[in-house]
Amino acid sequence: MTIKTPALPPEIQNLEPYKPGKPIEELERELGIRGAVKLASNENPLGPSPKAVLAMQEVLKDVHRYPDGAGFELRDALARRFGVKFEETCLGNGSDEIIEFLCRAYVRPGQKALAAAPSFLMYSKLVQVAGGVFAEVPLNRDFTIDAQGMLDAVTSDTRLIFMNNPNNPAGTALTGEAMRDFLDQVPSGVLVVLDEAYIDFASAKDCANGCDFLNHPKTPVVVMRTFSKSAGLAGMRIGYALGPEEVIRAFDRVRQPFNTSLPAQAAAVAALEDKEFLQKTRNLVHQGLSDLYRCFDELGLFYVPSQTNFVLVKIGPKAVQVAGELLKRGVIIRSMASYDMPEFLRISVGLPEENQRFIEELKSIATGGPGL
What is its quaternary makeup (predicted)? Predict the structure, then answer.
């Protein structure tokens, strides 16, 4: 007997699932190898914050209870850290869920959201799920966000503008001055979302910081951040948003009541205070970027200096082939073909020995085949 299921709406039928970086365990099973390294998903190679681990261990005895649905302790810590009101904070199952809140609350069928191209793929997917129209504005030739192009693309149907700053996958960031000039010109009725998943890695002193714009007099601003990257809590799925009370109340209307777990909330509170681990992470990333730049310079490869924990490098027509060859050698990196950049690879900074493994394998490919 054939069971007939309800028809999927077109926006869901046409949705391509997000494809994350290949897990180490999957690659080792496929190739029958051990000791693979993953430099594909912009994770913290040092692991999680030690203080976060201790905090999780302490609350495990209580996981038979539901977590605090309001996330009071973590939201209170965020409010104190960033000098905002408790009511101006919200928690998410990673910052991905914050994007989902935004689309559920503010995008109706036919309404538009804007983002740079390329940028984080989940913007387009969640706008599509909401039935909205997703429009992209190509990056400038120097791989920075085209702020003026964003403004020019705004129409009467535009509800959201996602500013992925620092940008993923380019690694570039707008200055504070450029961001302020942009916000001053955004038309009324548009919510600007500053996605700052990588802000903790930015080394440029003039990099825009979303917290400086939360009280912008003209344009409503939501800042999204995550504990997945610098705090090393990607597996716990915990992120947060800062923004106007009206927006946070809207999020509460569309979110699940227990959307973040007890261990995740405890880990994030502790990670906020682990300044030593954050500095150790930053030092590791900045040194790793320098080592990767040196390799690319030696090979004559173009790359984009990064304000994140990854770097975008142009390999050329053989980029997808090179990514496949690296996989065979146990090095997982990210091909940018899914970002419509088939000649580029994105390399996450790993531990020094992992970076060196990638460098040696890339040089071997360049000199011994299949070549670059």
Answer: Homodimer.
How far apart (Å, rounded) are the C-alpha atoms in residues 312 and 114? 23
Residue ending a domain, choose from 226, 243, 272: 272
Look at residue 13 and tell me if it is in a domain: no
Residue 314 lies in a domain: yes
| Domain end point (choices 272, 303, 335) | 272
pLDDT of 22 above 70: no
Write down the residue that tokens 């429009």 correspond to. 135
Q: What is the pTM of this model?
A: 0.93
Beta strands in the chain (DSSP E): 37-38, 89-92, 112-117, 133-138, 158-164, 191-195, 221-226, 239-242, 302-304, 310-314, 331-332, 334-335, 344-348
pLDDT of residue 10: 80
With a CB cutoff of 8 Å and minimum separation 6, the contacts of 261 are 63, 67, 236, 237
Whole-number pLDDT of residue 170: 97
Q: Specify which residues 138 forms β-bridges with.
A: 117
Q: In terms of C-beta density within 10 A (0-12 exposed, 13-18 middle, 19 or more buried), how is residue 293 classed?
A: middle
Phi, psi of 33 (to 5 degrees): -120, 170
Residue 13: its pLDDT value, please?
A: 78
Read off the pLDDT of residues 123-159 as tens digits, 9 standing for 90 and up.
Answer: 999 999 999 999 999 999 999 999 999 999 999 999 9
Q: Which two tokens stand for residue 338?
A: 């899914």
Domain that holds residue 224: 50-272
Is residue 141 situated within a structural domain? yes
Task: Please name the helix (run of DSSP H) or strand (run of DSSP E) that holds residue 229, with its range, or none.
Answer: none
Rounded-to-10 torsion of CA 170, 175, 179, 180: 180
Q: Is residue 117 in some structural domain?
A: yes
